[in-house]
Amino acid sequence: MNGHTTAVPVAALDNDRMALMAMRGILPQLLPGARWLWGASEAGEAVRLALAPDTRPRLLLVDMSLDDGTGVGVCRRIRRRTDRVLLLAVTAFSVDTYADRAAEAGAQGIVSKADVPAMAAAMRAVTAGGTFAPTGMAAPFETAGPAHRRLEDAAAGLSSDAGGGRVKLGAKETETLRLLAQGLSYEQIAARWGIAPATVRTHAHRAVDKLGAKSLAHAIAIYLSR
């Protein structure tokens, strides 16, 4: 590393403290020149630390499955406020489970915790200003700037789109948005309700149409503001 190179401050959110310790230990191999900043096991704490100037990391690894919230929600809360924190979603489950939700929430990529080479590639790609998706995946990840503007625009349009209560969603449409906001996939919601994933998608699409939203992410943002 050249003497003038500034170390990249990295932080992580994971409800498994052993996983945080392991990440801290392997960080130099995953991202040479990186500097471990902090590890958090609670969603609210991670959001607070990520947004505070003194503890803001350049790269935040966000576990998608948490005890006190969802990684998807954490990504959305941070990305709506700033584009200065790069977000990389990580999961012990199949990346397909969370990829679309993570992309909609403003993350720059997603990677499996079990795939160390891919983890290294993802961290390097994202910190270099790019995005990362596993081979063969078409999730529409954006860089931090455009993702921030998209979510910021969605938040700015809430008052007119919500219409002061003019739009009334059905019970299933509301519940679909609530569960999607928590990070569940169409398939997981369908399994919970004992229905087909296509039916869940229909509820989601109807919610988007009724709210006059530009996208599912926009509809979720409107729902969360109510």
TrEMBL record:
<dbReference type="InterPro" id="IPR016032">
    <property type="entry name" value="Sig_transdc_resp-reg_C-effctor"/>
</dbReference>
<keyword id="KW-0238">DNA-binding</keyword>
<dbReference type="GO" id="GO:0003677">
    <property type="term" value="F:DNA binding"/>
</dbReference>
<dbReference type="InterPro" id="IPR011006">
    <property type="entry name" value="CheY-like_superfamily"/>
</dbReference>
<dbReference type="Pfam" id="PF00196">
    <property type="entry name" value="GerE"/>
</dbReference>
<feature type="domain" description="HTH luxR-type">
    <location>
        <begin position="162"/>
        <end position="226"/>
    </location>
</feature>
<keyword id="KW-0597">Phosphoprotein</keyword>
<feature type="modified residue" description="4-aspartylphosphate">
    <location>
        <position position="63"/>
    </location>
</feature>
<protein>
    <submittedName>
        <fullName>Response regulator</fullName>
    </submittedName>
</protein>
<dbReference type="InterPro" id="IPR000792">
    <property type="entry name" value="Tscrpt_reg_LuxR_C"/>
</dbReference>
<dbReference type="InterPro" id="IPR001789">
    <property type="entry name" value="Sig_transdc_resp-reg_receiver"/>
</dbReference>
<dbReference type="InterPro" id="IPR039420">
    <property type="entry name" value="WalR-like"/>
</dbReference>
<feature type="domain" description="Response regulatory">
    <location>
        <begin position="9"/>
        <end position="128"/>
    </location>
</feature>
<dbReference type="GO" id="GO:0000160">
    <property type="term" value="P:phosphorelay signal transduction system"/>
</dbReference>
<dbReference type="GO" id="GO:0006355">
    <property type="term" value="P:regulation of DNA-templated transcription"/>
</dbReference>
<dbReference type="Pfam" id="PF00072">
    <property type="entry name" value="Response_reg"/>
</dbReference>
<dbReference type="InterPro" id="IPR036388">
    <property type="entry name" value="WH-like_DNA-bd_sf"/>
</dbReference>
